Amino acid sequence: MELILDRLTKQYHNKIAVDCISLNLHKGVYGLLGANGAGKTTLMRIICGVLKADSGTVTYDGVDVSSEAYRAKLGYLPQDFGYYPDFTGMDFLIYMAALKGLTKIQAKRKANELLELVSLKEEAHKKIKKYSGGMKQRLGIAQALLNNPQILILDEPTAGLDPKERVRFRNIIAKIGKENIVILSTHIVSDIEHIADTVLMMKDGRLIYQGKWQEKSGDLEEFYLKQFEED
């Protein structure tokens, strides 16, 4: 199980959003930190195949990001994921499961399992427009897990979650990361500190730090803030 990013570059007009990034990722949780505009979302969208890099490649066990086989192994929660307000949580997951190729029986079973995992079982038949921000975010996490992804990409997944929900989320992600590759970006350094096996830090489209934080002495939040203090 190896996700290889090889010299990825993406430029918008005069701004380089991703600047020749290369990484070899294996199973585990990768926490991606960086200020707004650092290039995190652009990088994640390239890894998901939503955005095409200007140069460089993304492959998983030799399979290219543009292929159906790659997409079948991918789960993605974008920063602003789209949902249908008049659908119930259950309807939405069954609909998304159908798009991902699950049969009706598989979809129903998986939707029930995931609604329980993200603590939405009791709200399964409530319309999404009546969900709180945190509930919508948990539903988004559930839809990203529908196809048992081997690569899970989560862009700001703890936005809108209260502290108790964040702890529950961290436990879910830590468990998934034992057998899969999880990349999550967040501004909440404590979320990364608690669950990331590897910390990745981006600034101006480049990786400025990569490694296990335990290997370094000091406070991760202090180190992070110091990197961006002039911004």
Automatic annotation (TrEMBL):
Gene Ontology MF terms in the entry: ATP binding; ATP hydrolysis activity
ATP-binding listed as a keyword: yes
SMART domains documented for this protein: AAA
Entry annotated with the keyword Transferase: no
Residues of the signal peptide: none
Listed CDD domains: ABC_drug_resistance_like
Keywords from the named record: ATP-binding, Nucleotide-binding, Transport
Domain ABC transporter, chain residue ranges per copy: 3-229
Pfam families linked: ABC_tran
InterPro entries reported for this sequence: AAA+_ATPase, ABC_transporter-like_ATP-bd, ABC_transporter-like_CS, P-loop_NTPase
UniProt similarity note: Belongs to the ABC transporter superfamily.
Protein name: ABC transporter ATP-binding protein
Organism: Extibacter muris
Organismal lineage: Bacteria, Bacillati, Bacillota, Clostridia, Lachnospirales
